[in-house]
Amino acid sequence: MKEIKFTTNYEPVLSFDDKDFKTKYEERVGNNPDYIQVVSGETKHLALCPRCNNPVAILGIYKKIDVAPHARHAKGINIPNVVQYDEYKFQNCPYHKKRANYIKEYVSETEEPQRQELFRIAKEHYDKAIYLLQEETGIYITLKMAETLAENYVNMRAYNYIDATIYNIPWYLIYSFTGFPLYHMIIRKNTTLYRHLSKPGFVLKDSKIKGYVYVEKSEGYLLTATNYRYVVDENDDLNEWLDFSIIRPDATVTDTLLYVPEDRFSVSVDSYHFGNLINYQKWSSRQKVLDIAKRYMPVLCCD
After folding, report:
1. What SS3 class is residue 217?
2. Which of 28, 146, 152, 284 is buried deepest, with most CB atoms within 10 A?
3. What confidence tens digit (pLDDT) does each residue in 228-282 have?
4. Cα–Cα–Cα angle for 125, 129, 104, rounded to 5 degrees
5. Alpha-carbon torsion (188, 194, 195, 198), positive or negative
6. Which pTM does this prediction carry?
């Protein structure tokens, strides 16, 4: 992996691409012996994996290696007072599995209190999450849609999904939701979604919002996020996608409402854009969206 962090909190990562990586690492750990341990006669400089919170060992900074400096999971090693190695999390970590789907399994009850910080970040930066979701998908998210997503995020406890992180908060807002009606949905032109809706059967009209169209005729059709998946490539870069389906009611079934797929497509997402946006100092807050978060995302019971 190309980034590390130092605690189980949701904090900015330290990248190996940072020219001052060694200095910043040593300043952060100081003389704390928990992060620098001798294991089987070898000194290991430790930190945490930004995805699974397991201990990792830093390679290529204090001893030359044949590849670029990076970090690797330190199996069986604990960092006292910080974190204990967890085999289940290791087995499901993107940097170990390399290719997998994110799942909606919940963390254990003992870990749920730790997710209060993730919930707080989602609430305090909800306008940024909505903005980024809109930018990446091309969906113009109205205030009503923002309300629906906020309420669903709480009801589904999406912050307690085992793969939920600070980085995927925007995507989990819609991934945890059942889907929005396409009828009158406003879509930005020249996006993946726009191209898929430009096929025969959908009527798109220019919106009053510059650069956007709206779907005029699509009664009964839904747009739903069906999967969130990742691949770690040969360069150890984490590539993530959100899969969507356009579905319509099945006319052959008359006694209940079922759907059939009309189209499927994927949207590539920037794994670290939201984390960077949180720390962006010149951000202009959207107060109406933040007010929605305050209304629909109340203080957790254990805060």
Report:
1. strand
2. 146
3. 999 998 888 889 999 999 999 998 988 888 999 999 999 999 888 998 899 888 9
4. 110
5. negative
6. 0.86
